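Retro notes
What went well: the complex prediction finally ran end to end.
Inputs used:
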Amino acid sequence: MNLKKYATTYVPVCNIDDLVPGRGACVLVEGRQVAVFRLPRGSVYAIGNHDPFSGANVLSRGIVGDLKGELVVASPIYKQHFSLVSGRCLEKPDVCVPVYPVRTLKGRIEVGSEPVPDGSRVA
Amino acid sequence: MARQKLVVIGNGMVGQKFLEAIVEAGGDFDITVFGEEPRAAYDRVHLSEYFTGRSADDLLLAPADFYAQHAINLKLGVKATAIDREARTVTGSDGSSVPYDHLVLATGSFPFVPPVPGHDRAHVHVYRTIEDLDAIRASAASARTGVVIGGGLLGLEAAKALRDLGIETNVVEFAPRLMAVQIDEGGGAMLRRKIEALGVYVHTNRNTKEIVDGEAARHRLNFADGTVLECDMLVFSAGIRPQDALAKASGVEVGPRGGIVVDDQCRTSDPSIYAIGECALWSGRIYGLVAPGYEMAKAAAQQIMALPDAALFQGADMSTKLKLMGVDVASIGDAHAQTPGAKSYAWIDEPNGVYKRIVVSSDNKRLLGAVLVGEASDYGTLLQVMLNGVALPAQPESMILPATDGKSSAGIGVDALPDTAQICSCNAVSKRELCKAVREGAHTVAALKDCTKAGTTCGGCVPLVTQVMNSELKKLGVEVKKDLCEHFAHTRQELYHLVRVGKLKTFDEVRNKHGVGLGCDICKPTIGSILASCWNDYVLKDEHAGLQDSNDHVLANIQKDGTYSVVPRIPGGEVTPDGLLAIATVAKKYDLYTKITGGQRIDLFGARLEQLPLIWEELIAAGFESGHAYGKSLRTVKSCVGSTWCRFGVQDSVGMAILIENRYKGLRAPHKLKMAVSGCTRECAEAQSKDVGVIATEKGWNLYVCGNGGMKPRHAELLASDLDDVTLLRYIDRFYMFYIRTADRLQRTSTWRDNLEGGLDYLKQVIIEDSLGIGAELEAEMALVIGTYQDEWRTTVEDPVKRARFRAFLNSDAADDNVVFVRERGQVRPASADEKAPVAAVKEEA
Ligand code: SRM
Ligand SMILES: Cc1cc2nc3c(=O)[nH]c(=O)nc-3n(C[C@H](O)[C@H](O)[C@H](O)COP(=O)(O)OP(=O)(O)OC[C@H]3O[C@@H](n4cnc5c(N)ncnc54)[C@H](O)[C@@H]3O)c2cc1C
Ligand code: SF4
Ligand code: FES
């Protein structure tokens, strides 16, 4: 990917209070299903909702937590863990789900219209 | 050369082991087996479990196809009646005559019945075969009191069985104490005290002179000292005698007091005839235990196959560890300190009913023997220390004194044992073999049992097998931790305790006090479940919602395509036609795939997340509640139709099932709970495969616990009989709360029970006798859960904020377009990837 061409338009999707602390929900961003998670202290993460192992759109319904310091969600179908930061699957590191830019402005959550390109991901 | 002919007489435990040894070593023979009993070899050691839920089939030693698979001609129900040593043939009671090149006698022994007048009266039994147990059970049905003659190991086992059958039980022993062969006076006295405390009467120093008609009961025993005892049934357990008649009649040498004389190769005086097991007399001894018999079986098999390094039988250690009426009893080596110069150390703890004694050599360097009563966890270590001549610590008594520093009391650990130490004597498994298996990847006791067979016979070695495994794992650098996960350095049991005692009400409180980090998909649901078991809050309250497994979080079971199933509760499986109509209406309206479940209710599949509250609103209006099919909680209480309609029913099983289901619905536990109630012993509700099963009797209810279907089926065991309604519920309350208190995460009651130190007897003490004094506490804890029940689906649909969370997308009313159904047999089902492909293609183009 060409890093220079990467610029995001943010789309407002919901209010932070629509999310229960410690859980996620799914939003539609220009036709894409994005799983948005609210951590207990209020930070917000977004990854693709599609679970590559089961083929179902369900990652937003998993349990969030941390494993060895990495923030993760566990797929509700077969329980693989995905990093909320890099999208990488902890059990099978060659499998990745997209990560979306996300920010909170005055209680409103906004998600980037394009996933973060591979090259600019936090490792 | 024609295949050699091998004939085996007797298909008992040892005869069977012999066949397995031949098969394992690749022996190629024409094999014929005579078995007098009507069924193939079964586990006599665990015979008594026939009374506590295991069927005759469960007790079989080999898979049903073992004999056919190895082309063994097994003649069941056929007794060998004569051996013609010259013609080399065996005649059977079916008239057959079978030629042999090698003959193996594995005829076992028979119970000795002293020839006192009256020994042949009706309702007088012995305790050796399944048929004996059937006869005892039949007698017990019309008996109130029973006597077991013989206070040895088998006599006490028989006494326990009688007591379990609800018979008032007496043990009559000729000697001045119980188990005089295996344990010393101090141990015998402690054992007696413990057994009497369990309600079994012990009469020692009694010589039975005759058995005659009783006054108040069927029989009356007249003793030599003039005393008498009356009873309705009687079991003789006065020792065993080798079954050597056939050998004797054919001129094979037998010992002066019986037993077929064999040498180290297990050969009799006729070199083509071998004898193994309890019929064999080696060096003047009969071995009445299964492990030496197994050794003989192995030796004989290898001798017959003429293997170059064939094993010999050179005597066996007679040490034993048993659980008699829930009391641990172990005897090791020279338990009576008969070795010249032997010295002993003893520890007696009367309040806790523990007696331990070790016998050491005159120079204090070697262990010669030991007796343990009431607490025998050091048995394995002590036995190995004796067998391997391990040097004793400077203070040998440290091996039996109670630990003061939290360490195991035996001052010598498994690491001191040589590699050759035989850890499992039943299956001849050495420490070296165990360690090797651990290194090759067997990291759990179950895996070790599977690949080495250690611990699979009498089970006595399991604690030691575990120690060897843990020590080897440690050497491999594999940490043996029982921590729940990286966030909590506690077991589930510890966390449960901390939550209760600390009155902790939320995950954050628990984490702040006892954990680290954010938590994960292991500890969150576990603690969520503990909080629910203790305080029974609504699980979707904001502070709990994040803890729930994905299924609990939406109160439905997720399916492979991300849709959900809906299971309304149908208590006891009873449903009105109107109820069915309501379910049908909902199913039709939302086009749900409808199926009758294995749990006597109806499952509606293919509901989308956003449809769940709508569907439930309609079901609730029709009177239905959540079925908790998604929770680690009470699932179903199956029932059979019972006395209301069925001509055999003796109680209202449907009524009881509904009562029970309504009592425990919503109860959250370490794993799911299933129950069933049957209206009579025909057991149409399959209660014996449930965590808690209830079976009606003429007098009330029998309560079975810890059964399981699923991957590893296990029959439930009888906990208590003929209970009235109130006692039944009280015992179930206590049982469940005790399980919730002490089980591991995701441990069904059956695995919990299998790992419970003390087993069923311990469970009975806790639940029935309230030995821990926590009965009232457990009942109060259950009362709180019952009293705070709410239908969580109703609470959810009535709360607009909670309802709003059931949406596919927070910012759109669209539905998940990845959910695609096709129709099959008139209903929907998820489309396969192939079936979905065209849809995707069409979308790409669009
Ligand atoms: C629907 C049903 C099959 C059916 O079509 O009949 C079913 C379906 C499932 N069973 Fe079952 N079991 C169903 C009766 C049983 C039974 C029979 C019974 O209860 O009489 C058993 C054996 C009895 C037992 O549990 O001891 C059974 C043993 C299991 C097991 C293995 C448990 C074990 O201890 O080995 C699992 C796996 C687990 O729980 O970890 C399981 C798990 C499951 C799960 C939850 C698997 C999953 O995670 O997706 C299935 C989801 C059901 C759903 O979405 O609604 N199911 N399952 C039955 C629902 C009964 C009900 O009304 O609630
Ligand atoms: C209730 C009970 C509990 C026990 N608990 C323990 C324990 O905890 N630990 C322990 O080590 N041992 C225990 N034992 C002893 C153990 O069961 C025996 O040591 C073992 O069964 C001996 O095996 P065997 O093959 O020599 O004899 P058996 O198992 O008795 O088998 C002999 C078989 O040969 C058959 N037979 C005899 N004569 C003929 C014939 N002429 N033709 C055809 N078939 C014939 C018999 O019918 C029988 O089936 C217990 C025994 C009982 C009864
Ligand atoms: S047996 Fe397996 S496939 Fe069938 S319902 Fe149970 S868990 Fe599902
Ligand atoms: S010693 Fe009996 S099973 Fe191991």
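What we learned: Chain A touches chain B through 38 residues (CB under 8 Å).
What to try next: split runs per interface for comparison.
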